[in-house]
Structure prediction request, 160 residues.
Amino acid sequence: MKHLLVVATVIVFAGCCSMNHMTSDVQSGDADNAIRQMDRDFSAAASSGNLDGMMSIYTDDATLMAAELPPFQGKAAIRQFWTGFMSAYPKVALTLTPDEITQSGDMATEVGHYEADLTAAGSTTPFHDKGKFFLAWRKVNGKWLAYVDSFSSNSPPPAR
Prediction:
């Protein structure tokens, strides 16, 4: 009877250990460095007015959620948002700082904060903005891409 209990325990333990299987496309912990690099690349693209560089972080079916606006769904709608933003603020100096990146298989989340100096069209004086962001990332064909992007300023909206 003791022998049967030991064998059953070993089988259950071995089964539990083999349940943690990941595909060859996903490496445990690879999201952190890749996402931090994507943040740097996005910041550089935004700061240089490179819309294509900004768009390179998104999946085709991504959703962008900015404060006080309806969601922008799909890459074409997100491009439209950023085109309008860059027209309104042609000079941008952006820094994205991840506070936490959590990976589970081919999915990851990022919570962070940003600082930006934004110069409105027709102005020469930038204003400084601070805020927070959340991104959900998915690994697609070996590359981490954002499929949900949400951000908002810490400052109250301007009086209307």
